[in-house]
Amino acid sequence: LVILHPIYSLSTTAPLRAKYVQVISDVDDTLKSSGGVKAAGVPLGGIDTQYVRGDFYPGVFEFMFQLAMHPVIQNSYEDFETFQQPPAKVAVLTARAEEFKAALELKDSSKLSQAFQKTGQRGGVQNWGLGPVLYGSVAEWVVQDRKGLRKFSNFERLIQQDNSGEIMEYVYVGDTGELDQEAGETMLREYPELVKCVFLHVVSETPNPNIPPPKLINGRPLVFFRTYVGAASKATQLGLMGTDGLQKVVDAAIEALVVAGVSEGDSKWIDLQTDLAEATRTCSILAPP
Q: What's the burial of 130, exposed, middle or buried (CB within 10 Å: 0-12/13-18/19+)?
């Protein structure tokens, strides 16, 4: 048995009001765009062509931080100084091949890791960011249909960090491009007591993809979304973050597009505006009086 990320202990000084949440994420087309680049007709990581290869999706880091922080806030008794444990770091299940780890490894010095760390620091948490990273293999690059199964088997390795099942629950965030739906649905079927929700980023090689409706698997929600503001609105409706957290995701997403200089008529703004309307409705209904 390999303990992948033993940051939590059953010995706490106060009872938990809510189990801690570890976000589990894919990389390509979930955290950053693959750009839809192919080699010999095989996608190199994904199919998204809306964003340039390597671009981070607006609001993605804040979304994952707020998911991880929500139970921490619930478990606090007065203020930040009384938090019993830090928010769980993000675990990564990626189809990137272990054999190519020297070239593809997600290092602490990488732009991706640094973006996570800066998000945590802005939220008052030091050293939050990437946690365990579980890779795929060359076999899944050759036989694409095996990617979903590999991610699920890596998930089963990950949950061995908490054999008690009393401390940690999980939220899986993937995309619709590389069999993440297969992996996520299997997690919900096999471990509904541990997996609170699956979020799938809808990506496409063509403009204006259809956004499938959410569905329940074993009583747990599977949610499709186009922007991380849309994902945060659904998470707020499901009780996975508060309206304050939703507003922070909104602010982060808007800031990202403004800083990138994205023109007003671009599809990125159009998609975001659609989800901003839902965020406004969600806050008006759920915000405390």
A: buried
Distance CA 75, CA 218 (A): 27
Q: What is the pTM of this model?
A: 0.90
- Cα separation, 222 vs 199, in Å, equals 6
Phi, psi of 90 (to 5 degrees): -75, 125
Strand partners, 92: 25, 133
Report yes or no: 120 and 79 within 8 Å, Cβ to Cβ.
no
Where is pLDDT greater, at 133 or 184?
A: 184
Q: Are 204 and 49 in contact (CB under 8 A)?
A: yes
| Tokens 């297969």 -> residue | 182
Task: Over range 136-146, report the average pLDDT.
Answer: 60
CB atoms within 10 A of CB 110: 12
Is 155 in contact with 187 (CB distance < 8 Å)? yes
pLDDT tens per residue, range 32-50: 999 998 776 666 678 999 9
Amino acid identity for residue 139 in this structure: A
The per-residue pLDDT of the chain, averaged, comes to 86
Closest CA to 175 of 46, 57, 42, 39: 46
Give the percent of the chain with pLDDT over 90.
67
